[in-house]
Design a protein that fits this description.
Length: 119
């Protein structure tokens, strides 16, 4: 199994507890993966660990008062890559604030390609 990252940085997955397909895809691709289920915990993990990329499940991309978890992550570490995994079709070319890429939930290979490219 090939290791996808160039350095010791990890990929953090912020996902719904029931969702394991994205986790399986990332582990199978050789990424060092950490998983959390709440936006607050994701921010805490990024503060205290060497995280290079965060994969957000659409359900966890919450915007409160025009501020998102992605923007909070960028405030902590400006060069962190934040990828949003969405259900259904991607209809707009505009990325939400703090998001670097958007991939469909069922396209695990696209997610792996993006992560390999940025890491």
């Amino acid at each position: 199994m090939a290791v996808a990252q160039k350095s010791a940085g990890a990929v953090l997955l912020l996902a719904d507890r029931r969702q394991s397909q994205t986790s399986k895809v990332l582990k199978d691709a050789g990424f060092r993966l950490m998983t959390t289920f709440t936006p607050d915990h994701a921010v805490a993990i990024c503060v205290n660990n060497n995280v290079h990329a965060v994969v957000l499940d659409q359900e966890n991309f919450v915007v409160t008062e025009n501020w998102s978890v992605a923007q909070s992550l960028k405030m902590i570490k400006a060069d962190i890559c934040v990828i949003l995994v969405v259900r259904g079709k991607i209809v707009s070319g505009d990325l939400p604030a703090g998001i670097d890429a958007v991939v469909p939930e069922k396209d695990g290979q696209a997610l792996v390609r993006i992560l390999k490219k940025i890491l």
